[in-house]
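Work Package 4 report. The design task specified in the project plan requires that, given a folded chain encoded as structure tokens, an amino acid be chosen for each position. We show below one input record used in the internal validation round.
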């Protein structure tokens, strides 16, 4: 397992109250600076995170995983609100069951009132149409890594409310199918996006059995969330680490996520 071992700081303890600067290093670069008086207690900064490495320094530390898998009762509230801007969502995922049920199973998504948008990535079944990837109010592409694993890229344009057909998840050739859906125009959204389920006006529904390898949210050309599967060192909790906000998101549902192999192990 690769490790980054990082804590180099200069602390002077003198008999007089003098101001001192403490530099915190990771990979030979200063990642944080603390100023204190002689004799003060020092609180370490947030532990650094680097994809493919395990931090072995001062804090909780995170081990990154190839994926985390839900069993149908786990979900994550990202806190990300897609609001009044152009958005792009990239999801690296695989479904664990081949057949869709009549009820949608949502990899990520949210739905508000009738005046709010309904956006997400779901596996659903309607009448005689087989399982397919639902992507609402967006322009989509789907790439296939292998039979079960896919990359979905969704561009949500708030200026274009035209209906977009679903994309069928054919192993090697995703094609449009199904009936387009019309939804209300975009207004002031306050509903955050859930992962492994849908935020239905503040409540979770449409749980899914799937693996997620990574999911990235962009808005107005800027990455606002980059969620990577991880295990937290302090309590071995399984969840996703957002490298943008440097925040760990654990399961908000019941049961436990299944951890994939450690990255770099």
């Amino acid at each position: 397992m690769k490790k980054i071992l990082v804590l180099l700081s200069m602390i002077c303890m003198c008999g007089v109250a003098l101001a001192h600067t403490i530099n915190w290093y990771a990979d030979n670069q200063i990642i944080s600076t603390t100023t204190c008086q002689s004799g003060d207690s020092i609180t370490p900064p947030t532990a650094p995170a680097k994809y493919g490495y395990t931090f072995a320094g001062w804090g909780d530390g995170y081990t990154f995983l190839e994926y985390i898998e839900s069993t149908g009762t786990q979900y994550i509230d990202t806190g990300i609100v897609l609001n009044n801007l152009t958005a792009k969502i990239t999801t690296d995922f695989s479904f664990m069951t081949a057949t869709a049920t009549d009820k949608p199973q949502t990899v990520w998504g949210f739905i508000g009132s009738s005046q709010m948008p309904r956006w997400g990535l779901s596996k659903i079944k309607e009448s005689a149409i087989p399982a397919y990837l639902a992507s609402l109010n967006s322009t989509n592409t789907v790439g296939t890594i292998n039979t079960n694993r896919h990359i979905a890229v969704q561009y949500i344009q708030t200026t274009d409310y035209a209906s977009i057909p679903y994309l069928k998840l054919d192993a090697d050739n995703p094609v449009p199918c199904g009936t387009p859906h019309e939804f209300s125009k975009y207004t002031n959204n306050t509903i955050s996006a859930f992962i492994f389920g849908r935020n239905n006006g503040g409540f979770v529904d449409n749980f899914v059995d799937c693996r997620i390898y990574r999911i990235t949210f962009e808005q107005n050309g800027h990455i606002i969330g980059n969620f990577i599967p991880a295990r937290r060192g302090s309590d071995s909790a399984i969840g996703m680490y957002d490298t943008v906000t440097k925040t760990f998101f654990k399961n908000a549902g019941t049961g436990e996520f299944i951890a994939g192999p450690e990255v770099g192990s």
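Residues 3-45 form one domain. Validation will be extended to a larger panel in the next phase.
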